């Protein structure tokens, strides 16, 4: 087969449906990545307009441009949009688009999940934007502190939009994080060991693991606050044993890692672009990887530095102050690695490099003010002033937007196959850089003079008039610069000025393909020998197009790729992807119906929506698998691999594993909340404790044990060619028992609306019940698959996945029972 | 997967001990803020200092384990990175839990 014929065949297999309908059914990572990026930058535009309205309001004293109610919505939505609807989705979009190309594979691990994540983001974002248009947008600040946002002081729907909309959007972040983690660990070109991975993949891997462990506390907090608002369970109300500080802990357990979740991908972009611009390799690759891991973990030990002014004991303050100063060290190591890379190379001042220099200057200043606010006495002076607002903008705009602008100019030729014709970018950079520093240097200054953040206006005698006017002028200059960037991107995409292949002469794999990239990325998959495959073999792209790599002989109608061993990069097993489908948009619409029913308080619709989610989820998984044994597959270059349907550690198993990491973090946060209320909140111990129930303990423990043992028996029987039906029966019995025990626990809790103790126990019981119900559903699914002929010794991928969820159910059963009954035993 | 765990182990252990000592601070100050031990030294101070030493001991043990042939990775790259992150965990324990012996215990 020649290169052209191979291209035509692959194109027919991998392309999206033609026309506008293709957008709703595509699962291709390049399409979904572009959709993510376009939507994220649309949100950036909206958030930017809101920022301009804020600066217009503050430009003069006693301004009547916007009243306090509208102004509260403006700054809340500006922060919310920039954090949740722009920054994280931009990373997701960039990584979705780039990772498979960089890793030398054809798509991410779960293409349908990629599309589902996008539609959740799209609908969740639309929900929030709709609230803005209707004038009922969230207005409690982007971190939504109760009691201000509780049912007493914010009785309207504004806060519900935030809690429900953001939770909906977070689904997409969790989906993307699972997707990236599994893709980076398993879906790489053969030969690409951990040591040979592109540096951006390391950054994306660490960021994804941070999302999996950083986002669940916020999801939990949002659920608890929404439950408090809707049903009166008093988690955050001090008069009923709750504590509003619990929200702050949960929020900042997410919120500080969030800053690094935003920064790290941008740093990954910098680490990728600088060596190319300097015509050399990254200095201290291993050190940078270690620094990224260190930074990620240290970032989880900083959350209380947002709460220095809340009256936390001195020793606690000192722990977090120390950690906050320490986090500058791994950041510094990366900066020195970048400077060293520039030093040993021959830097060329192309446009991406300009933005990276802008990043250097801005981010270092932001880092230095970060160290300043890490020191408790200084933080007490500037807490909640414009100084903090200026600091976070230096870190986030400097640490994220400048690198993303560099990324746009660096990878646009890849995405479009064209080069810049109108040279507007340099002018745009100058305006953005100058405007930004004018805006936020002034804001530091006015903050030190005492201007508090989020004030709607001020008086002339405060002495802040001139500085605020300068700041506002700077903001508008910056906006003009960003508008020119947008204009140039549009012009770039509309002028037919073809670019040569690999215009930057980069060594990484995303440039080893025709531009713009075809839907399948590589006609055949490379065997990687080093970190810069294109520098090692300049003819690699041509050889891959000729089919000299793996999977160069595509079967009709089958989207295929292969996975590798995590550490060594040796080929592991063969994977067949699902094709185009509208299932993701339907699934996200049904998920949206669930959230909408909660938002509009149409509670009769909620169980129907849950049933709909279960039904579509069932259909989603049902389409996978085979009724005949696939056998081993010839993947080219003399290698034969088993099919993913026949292995114990299938893609679904890996996805479940990392989803359970997020789930365990959620559960850990819930236990933390319970312990926090016991030790800190007023009105504890509670007036009445729940007495241990032997029935609940025995049935819950036996149910968990039966569930695990039943699936293990079924798996063993299936692999030996026997009938797994008895094992599945035992598992079903066990999970039904677990469900009954948790339901009984919930019924037995003291009035959940009367005290935070009962409320927390009720939620713990509900968590157990949800997982037991999920285990019942999964076991029923396996029984249905068995009856339909999907299960055989050579097709056993489903059982280990359910086994993993059963083990998790068993694992959480014990702490739930301890949390429920231990206080009574001790008392 | 084991190699990934080796790389994450040091900072993960630090995160666990850091959270544990922070939680211990809340529990101990809620239960026995006024107690004393070893003469004039307050009981909470002793408990926190012991917790800090335990954290350092655990980190040292992990670093030592990562330097052995049996528990270290076969990949030279992973070996270097995991040992580096192990030392990061140790340094982080030394620095971030140092307040246990110098700041007021239960104020």
Automatic annotation (TrEMBL), chain A:
GO terms for cellular component: plasma membrane. The chain crosses the membrane at residues 35-54, 74-98, 118-137, 161-187, 199-225, 259-278, 285-305, 317-342, 354-378, 390-412, 424-447, 467-491, 583-600, 606-624, 657-677, 689-713, 725-747, 759-784, 796-822. Gene3D superfamilies: Cytochrome c oxidase, subunit III, four-helix bundle, Cytochrome c oxidase-like, subunit I domain. Its main location: membrane. It is a multi-pass membrane protein. It comes from Aquibium oceanicum. InterPro entries: Cyt_c_oxase-like_su1_dom (IPR023616), Cyt_c_oxase-like_su1_sf (IPR036927), Cyt_C_Oxase_1 (IPR000883), Cyt_c_Oxase_su1_BS (IPR023615), Cyt_c_oxidase-like_su3 (IPR000298), Cyt_c_oxidase_su1_bac (IPR014241), Cyt_c_oxidase_su3-like_sf (IPR035973), Cyt_c_oxidase_su3_a-hlx (IPR013833). Residues 14-529 form the Cytochrome oxidase subunit I profile domain. It comes from the Bacteria. GO terms for molecular function: cytochrome-c oxidase activity; heme binding; metal ion binding. It is found in: Cell membrane. Pfam families: COX1 (PF00115). GO terms for biological process: electron transport coupled proton transport; oxidative phosphorylation; respiratory electron transport chain. Belongs to the heme-copper respiratory oxidase family. Residues 569-825 form the Heme-copper oxidase subunit III family profile domain. Its EC number is 7.1.1.9. The keyword Ion transport does not apply. Pathway: Energy metabolism; oxidative phosphorylation. It catalyses: 4 Fe(II)-[cytochrome c] + O2 + 8 H(+)(in) = 4 Fe(III)-[cytochrome c] + 2 H2O + 4 H(+)(out). Keywords: Cell membrane, Copper, Electron transport, Heme, Iron, Membrane, Metal-binding, Respiratory chain, Translocase, Transmembrane, Transmembrane helix, Transport. It is an enzyme of class 7 (translocase). This is cytochrome-c oxidase.
TrEMBL record, chain B:
Keywords: Membrane, Transmembrane, Transmembrane helix. The chain crosses the membrane at residues 47-68, 80-98. It comes from the Bacteria. This is Uncharacterized protein.
């Amino acid at each position: 087969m020649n290169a052209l014929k191979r291209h035509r065949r692959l194109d027919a297999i991998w392309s999206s449906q033609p026309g506008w309908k293709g957008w709703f059914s595509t699962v291709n990572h390049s399409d979904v990545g572009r959709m993510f990026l376009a939507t994220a930058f649309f949100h950036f535009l909206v958030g930017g307009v809101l920022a301009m309205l804020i600066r217009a309001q503050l430009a003069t004293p006693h301004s009547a441009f916007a009243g306090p109610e509208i102004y509260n919505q403006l700054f809340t939505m500006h922060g919310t949009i920039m954090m949740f609807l722009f920054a994280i989705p931009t990373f997701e979009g960039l990584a979705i688009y780039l990772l498979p190309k960089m890793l030398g594979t054809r798509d991410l691990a779960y293409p349908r999940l990629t599309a589902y994540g996008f539609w959740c983001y799209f609908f969740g974002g639309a929900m929030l934007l709709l609230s803005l248009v209707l004038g009922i947008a969230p207005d409690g600040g982007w971190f939504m502190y109760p009691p201000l946002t509780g049912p007493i002081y914010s009785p309207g729907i504004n806060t519900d939009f935030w809690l429900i909309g953001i939770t909906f959007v977070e689904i997409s972040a969790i989906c993307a994080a699972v997707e990236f983690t599994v893709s980076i660990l398993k879906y790489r070109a053969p030969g690409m060991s951990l040591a040979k991975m592109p540096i951006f993949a390391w950054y994306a891997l660490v960021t994804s693991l941070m999302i999996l462990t950083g986002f669940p506390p916020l999801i939990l907090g949002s659920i608890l606050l929404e439950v408090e608002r809707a049903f009166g369970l008093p988690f955050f109300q001090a008069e009923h044993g709750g504590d509003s500080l619990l929200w702050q802990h949960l929020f900042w357990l997410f919120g500080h890692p969030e800053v690094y979740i935003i920064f790290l991908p941008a740093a990954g972009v910098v680490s990728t672009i600088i060596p190319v611009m300097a015509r050399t390799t990254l200095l201290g690759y291993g050190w940078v990887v270690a620094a990224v891991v260190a930074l990620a973990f240290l970032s989880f030990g900083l959350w209380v530095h947002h709460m220095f002014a809340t009256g936390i004991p001195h020793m606690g303050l000192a722990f977090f102050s120390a950690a906050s100063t320490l986090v500058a060290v791994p950041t510094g190591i990366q900066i020195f690695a970048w400077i060293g890379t520039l030093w040993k190379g021959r830097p060329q001042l192309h446009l991406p490099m300009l933005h990276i220099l802008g990043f250097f200057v801005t981010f270092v200043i932001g880092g230095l003010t970060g160290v300043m606010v890490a020191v408790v006495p200084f933080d007490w002076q500037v807490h909640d002033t414009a100084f903090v607002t200026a600091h976070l903008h230096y870190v986030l705009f400097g640490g994220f937007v400048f690198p993303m602008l560099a990324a746009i100019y660096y990878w646009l030729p890849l995405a479009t196959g064209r080069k810049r014709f109108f040279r507007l970018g340099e002018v745009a950079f100058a305006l953005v850089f100058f405007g930004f520093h004018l805006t936020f240097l002034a804001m530091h200054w006015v903050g030190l003079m005492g201007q508090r953040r989020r004030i709607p206006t001020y008086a002339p005698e405060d002495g802040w008039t001139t500085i605020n006017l300068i700041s506002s002028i700077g903001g508008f200059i910056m906006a003009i610069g960003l508008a020119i960037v947008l204009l140039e991107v549009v012009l770039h995409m509309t002028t037919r000025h073809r670019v040569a292949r690999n215009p930057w002469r980069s060594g990484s794999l995303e440039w080893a393909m025709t531009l713009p990239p075809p839907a399948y990325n590589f006609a055949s998959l490379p065997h990687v020998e080093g970190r810069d495959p294109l520098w090692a073999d300049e003819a690699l792209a041509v050889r891959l197009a000729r089919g000299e790599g793996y999977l160069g002989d595509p079967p009709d109608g089958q989207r295929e790729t292969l996975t590798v061993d995590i550490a060594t990069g040796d080929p592991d097993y063969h994977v067949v992807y699902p094709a185009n489908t509208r299932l993701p948009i339907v699934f996200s619409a049904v998920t949206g119906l669930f959230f909408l029913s909660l938002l509009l308080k149409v509670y009769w619709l909620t169980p129907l929506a849950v049933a709909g989610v279960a039904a579509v989820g069932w259909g989603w998984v049902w389409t996978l698998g085979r009724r005949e044994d696939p056998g081993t597959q010839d993947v080219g270059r003399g290698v034969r691999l088993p099919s993913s349907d026949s292995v114990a550690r299938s893609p679904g198993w890996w996805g479940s594993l990392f989803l359970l990491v997020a789930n365990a973090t959620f559960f850990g946060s819930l236990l933390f909340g319970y312990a926090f209320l016991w030790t800190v909140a007023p009105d504890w111990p509670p007036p009445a404790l729940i007495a241990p129930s032997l029935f609940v303990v025995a049935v819950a423990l036996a149910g968990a044990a039966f569930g695990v043992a039943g699936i293990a028996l079924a798996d063993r029987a299936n692999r030996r060619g026997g009938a797994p039906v008895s094992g599945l029966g035992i598992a079903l019995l066990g999970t039904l028992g677990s469900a009954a025990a948790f339901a009984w626990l919930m019924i037995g809790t003291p009035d959940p609306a009367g005290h935070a103790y009962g409320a927390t126990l009720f939620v713990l019981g509900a968590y157990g019940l949800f997982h037991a119900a999920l285990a019942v559903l999964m076991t029923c699914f396996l029984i249905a698959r068995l009856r339909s002929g999907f299960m055989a010794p050579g097709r056993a991928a489903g059982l280990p996945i359910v086994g993993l969820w059963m083990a998790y159910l068993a694992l959480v059963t014990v702490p739930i029972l301890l949390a429920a009954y231990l206080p009574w035993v001790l008392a | 997967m084991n190699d990934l765990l080796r790389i994450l182990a040091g900072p993960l252990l630090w995160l666990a001990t850091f959270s544990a000592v922070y939680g211990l601070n809340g529990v101990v100050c809620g239960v026995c803020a006024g107690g004393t031990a070893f003469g004039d030294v307050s009981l909470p101070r002793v408990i926190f200092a012991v917790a800090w030493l335990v954290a350092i001991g655990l980190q040292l043990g992990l670093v030592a384990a990562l330097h052995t042939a049996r528990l270290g990775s076969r990949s030279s790259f992973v070996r270097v990175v995991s040992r580096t992150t192990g030392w990061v965990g140790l340094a982080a324990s030394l620095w971030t839990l140092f307040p246990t012996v110098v700041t007021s215990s239960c104020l």
